[in-house]
Design goal:
By secondary structure, the chain is an all-alpha fold. It has two domains: 219 residues, no CATH class; 203 residues, no CATH class. The chain is 81% helix and 0% strand. The radius of gyration is 21 Å and the shape is globular.
């Protein structure tokens, strides 16, 4: 077997491992979702949509993007110091944010249109962001060690725990079922991720403040050029639902949240799994000065075919499927899906390739796109009063424009890399 064939085989094997783990992890919540939507109030789901998006936005910048660099060093000693550095930064930033929420809770609650009886939810946002950030930190160590099976197991632990907590809390009549279940499941994920990382040669005995400082300087491009743009990028993904919660009623927010959850399933199942394996592979190829052009072309072709299948299913049958599975109340979610599936399919193809920027040391190009994307999303706030369908059509146009530009930038970065090869 040639090196190219061996590399392709290893890539497919690793992706399959992550996809299998993700599929198993998502199986329980997907089966449970139609029942949860009938058991839990629309108001609680609307609040959870806002809560989930807020902690997702914060978590992306909580460690100043240093976790991305954990994969890059040749020596584990350097990588372990980056891991410890990331943990310290995340802890400090989330504690600082907790203080901000303490002083401005009422103002934030009013701005986000969160019901008064859910105002205490904001205090748990930094906790959730901290847990997500920590899980990502240890996950990058597992990516570094090519421990994709361990990463898959962690996802299963997370989702099975989440579903178990949700059903248990509903049974005993616990309040804020979704939020508490989410937080406790992420804690279970973190504990498992720590155990898996230790099993895969993680040791903190080499960590010191001096070494962490050296690594912080060495990889300073990540906080300087990628933290704010990455924060803006995730905000761009999460803000539309927050905008909808502010501009429309809770039933619209709940329907759109379900729409995003269902459409996001292929992204979580396949696209993100491809992304994690691709990051490690591109980094390895760069270190060995190996061409990646044909490999990327074949990958994009396969993703386009899968994305096209998703468009056909959701555009023609989306509304019927949502009513069948979730009930008549969520008919609008199906209508929303028939619009947004086009942007989701485009993200499905382009998103896995976004980690090519850090893998090929081109953070600035990625940062430029993320800033442009955020500015385009903010335009939604300045549109005149629109029906929810017109709002989503405007959002769709922005998404297509932004991700087409993203694809062009990725092409330029790959072309520049190929031209520099010996």
């Amino acid at each position: 077997m040639s090196f190219k064939e061996k590399s392709q085989s290893e890539f497919i094997k690793n992706v399959f491992t992550l996809v299998t783990g993700t599929a198993i992890a998502q199986c329980v919540p997907v089966i449970l979702s139609p029942f949860l939507r009938r058991w839990i109030t629309v108001e609680e789901y609307a609040v959870f949509e806002v809560f989930f998006r807020l902690m997702s936005i914060i978590s992306i910048a909580a460690a100043l993007r240093y976790p991305l660099a954990i994969v890059l060093p040749k020596e584990d000693k350097e990588a372990s110091n980056l891991l410890c550095l990331s943990m310290l930064i995340s802890t400090f930033i989330n504690l600082l944010l907790l203080g901000v929420i303490y002083f401005f809770n009422n103002a934030i609650t009013l701005t986000l249109n969160i019901p008064d009886n859910y105002s205490s939810v904001l205090y748990w946002v930094p906790v959730g962001a901290f847990l997500i950030s920590m899980c990502n930190i240890f996950n990058y160590w597992l990516i570094r060690k090519k421990a994709f099976s361990a990463s898959s197991i962690n996802k299963v632990v997370h989702k099975v725990s989440e579903s178990t907590f949700w059903v248990s809390f509903i049974h005993i009549g616990f309040q804020n079922t979704l939020i508490w279940g989410d937080l406790l499941a992420r804690l279970a994920w973190l504990l498992m991720a720590i155990k898996q990382s230790i099993n895969n040669q993680l040791s903190v005995r080499y960590c010191s403040l001096k070494e962490m400082w050296f690594r912080a300087i060495e990889y300073k491009a990540y906080p300087l050029y990628n933290t704010l743009p990455a924060l803006l990028n995730v905000a761009s993904l999460m803000l539309p639902v927050i905008f909808v919660n502010k501009l429309y009623d809770e039933s619209v927010t709940s329907n759109l949240g379900l729409c995003m959850q269902v459409l996001g399933f292929p992204l979580a199942l396949i696209s993100m799994s491809v992304s994690q394996v691709l990051f490690q592979k591109i980094t390895e190829s760069k270190n060995k000065s190996i061409s990646i052009k044909s490999f990327i072309s074949n990958l994009v072709f396969k993703l386009v075919l899968m994305g096209a299948l998703g468009i056909v299913i959701m555009y023609f049958f989306g509304e019927y499927l949502f009513v069948l599975v979730y009930g008549e109340f969520y008919r609008d979610a199906g209508a929303f899906a028939s619009i947004l599936v086009f942007s989701i399919a485009l993200k499905f193809v382009i998103s896995p390739l976004s980690l090519i920027f850090p893998a090929l040391d081109n953070i600035k190009m990625s940062s430029l796109w993320q800033c442009i994307y955020f500015i385009l999303i903010l335009l939604l706030l300045f549109l005149p009063d629109l029906s929810i369908l017109d709002f989503l059509l405007a959002y769709l146009a922005i998404e297509i424009l932004a991700y087409t530009l993203h694809a062009f930038m990725i092409y330029r970065v790959i072309s520049n890399y190929e031209h520099k090869l010996p």
